[in-house]
Amino acid sequence: MSEELAKDIHNVIAQGEGPNVEFKSSFRWVYHQGKANKAPDLSILKTIAGFMNFEGGGTLLLGIDDDLNILDWKKTRALLKAKSR
After folding, report:
1. How far apart are CA 15 and CA 33, in angstroms?
2. pLDDT single digits (tens) 23-78
């Protein structure tokens, strides 16, 4: 990731969620339960649909928790690799 892009993402994260910014921890791994979700997170699909209908669009960042921490995606990557085989 370029340094410029990294700065922009960190600025978006620091400002927190808002009407056109949403954070989701993962689309397959449930961090607070410590296990995989068998189906993709429907709230992510609803967020995408909402942003598509919002005049200004929106930004969805995956891998950010409610405390604005950037999460490790090793478990999500492992799930994706297992599905692609």
Report:
1. 27
2. 988 877 777 777 777 776 788 889 999 999 988 889 999 889 889 988 877 777 77
> How many separate domains does the chain show?
1
Per 3-state DSSP, what percentage of the chain is helix, strand, and coil (rounded to 5)? 40, 20, 40
Contact between 75 and 82 (Cβ < 8 Å): no
Give SS3 for 3.
helix
Q: Is the distance from CB of 44 to CB of 6 less than 8 angstroms?
A: no
* Residue the block writes with tokens 């410029």: 4
- For residue 20, give the nearest of 63, 65, 56 by alpha carbon: 56
Pairing between β-strand 21-24 and β-strand 29-30 as defined by DSSP bridges: unpaired
Q: Which domain holds residue 8?
A: 3-84
What pTM did the predictor assign?
0.72
